[in-house]
Amino acid sequence: MIYIQIFLAFFYPGILGYGGGPASIPLIEHEVVDKYGWMTTTEFSEVLALGNALPGPIATKMAGYIGYEVGGIFGAIVALLATVGPSLLAMLILLNILYRFRQSPRVERLSSFVLPAIAVLLAEMTFDFVKTSYDMIGFIASILLIIGAYVALEKLKIHPAYVVMIGLIIGGLFL
Amino acid sequence: MARQKEIFIAFFRSGILGFGGGPSSIPLVKKEVVDIYKMMTDEEFADVLAIGNTLPGPIITKMAGYIGYRVGGWIGLINALFATILPTVILMILFLTTLNQFKGFDFVKGMTNGVVPVVAVMLGVLTWDFLKKSKNALGWKIGSILLFASIIGILILQLHPGIIIGSLLAVALLLPVKKEGNE
Known about the structure:
The structure holds 2 protein chains of 2 kinds. Chain A is an all-alpha fold. Chain A is built from 6 helices and no strands. In chain B, helix 1 (2-17) runs antiparallel to helix 2, helix 1 (2-17) packs across helix 4 (59-101) and helix 3 packs across helix 4 (59-101). Chains A and B meet through helix 1, helix 2, helix 3, helix 4 and helix 5 of A and helix 1, helix 3, helix 4, helix 5 and helix 6 of B.
């Protein structure tokens, strides 16, 4: 049953993604690319780039689209429910309990202890993308685009939507 | 009914204007929920945000669902979730399926190549953000120990990320709290 796989693929990132939507991106990649092989790293990068260029929460955009690709409209619904449902349910049930212990240092540090692991997962993914880029368009083109994108995003503070669009156009014309 | 309309508008606006993933729309949600519609006070909002952050999963849908529920019951919950998620998911599906139809063309193939380095930069920046956050939240010492442990677990031993995250959560709960005096 493909829908069960879709559910599981998004249930884990949803329930393990500490630190909001972005923290679950490497977890989604792990399931979708490595485990189930629904997409290649390149296809995943397109989805991620477009997701970053469009407004709104990233985890649900990715889930909705990938669910749709793999299992149609119903797949999209399953993926969205798996992403949103468990953590929301936990929020509704646990809010009263956690509210009582919200001053406890143990509860306070729950989300901070996970940050280094998320950083490592993101670093691993960054490396994958650099490698994919190197394999596809070579060293010089990759380096130029990486430096260009970095300057545009971080120094000039150009909106990600425009940077992605410029990347798409440069790629379309020259690569 | 008027309340439900307010819930929808509040979360529709903060969803569609939040570029850069869920966390970037938190200030927008606060503006709508606290300043414009006065559904809760500043302090209540801060509490919901703090607890939302200690739980896993996308932050914005947790906030939307919970606030929707508090203000408008179960219908409010569904309403707020739909308003947050649906518009951007539909945009995403429309854009990508259109793009896929033209996949055979060289121009579209090139576009794919051009976007990979851009994504690499975005992820690199995100990685740096999380490293900075770890340093700020944990300090150099604990931060580096946990970072080093994660590197060993994830990159060298190739353990499933779930195992790493689960263990870190267990450590956070079980470790004695005396040391750095966070209280």
